[in-house]
Design brief:
With about 170 residues, the chain is an alpha+beta fold. It is built from 4 helices and 8 strands; from the N terminus they run αββαββαββββα. Strand 3 (about 70-80) and strand 4 form a beta hairpin.
């Protein structure tokens, strides 16, 4: 440790700035949603993955209009006689995510939608909205700042989606 006062002040300043940098990184890391779309899960293997601008554009096409998102993802999974796709639309805050979910549930079953009206599903403390159409069962729900839309082709979609909500 240096002995001169100006060197000591520089050393203290370096330590303080380093600590502030670490604190800022930890704050960012702890408050940023980390989307987890694994390469494999249970019997399923990820067969396609899209992120960033391409995924955001795809999500906009599903909504029939551009959507302001901070991030977007899509992953397709294939398993034994069951498939599912997960779209993740990340907003800048939780209120915006809840608003997007409300808009989605309001549109399902409407005049131009190909899905049945949304029904609230609650099991074991988990909440999602369920609709059906085009040979699959769709679920949408919010986790933090992200809206998830899971489209499942399987004989047991309600059981499967509850595991997906917990693990993704």
């Amino acid at each position: 440790m240096p002995g001169r006062p100006e060197t000591m002040e520089r050393w203290i300043a370096a330590v303080v700035w380093s600590a502030l940098g670490v604190a800022a990184f930890l704050l960012y890391y702890m408050t940023t949603l980390h989307v987890h779309l694994p390469e494999s899960w249970q019997e399923f293997h990820r067969t396609a993955y899209v992120q960033g601008k391409d995924a955001i554009a795809e999500i906009g096409r599903l909504h029939k209009q551009p959507i302001d998102l901070s991030r977007g993802y899509r992953a397709d999974y294939d398993g034994r006689c069951r498939q599912f796709t997960v779209w993740v639309a990340v907003k800048t805050n939780a209120d915006e995510a809840r608003t997007l979910l409300e808009e989605m549930t309001g549109r399902t079953g409407s005049g131009y939608a190909v899905l049945s009206p949304s029904a609230l599903v609650r099991r074991g403390g988990l909440t999602a909205y369920r609709s059906a159409g085009m040979g699959q069962t769709d679920f949408h729900y919010v986790k933090g700042t992200a809206v998830y839309w899971v489209a499942i082709t399987a004989p047991d979609p309600d059981d499967l989606v509850m595991h997906i909500i917990l693990d993704f």
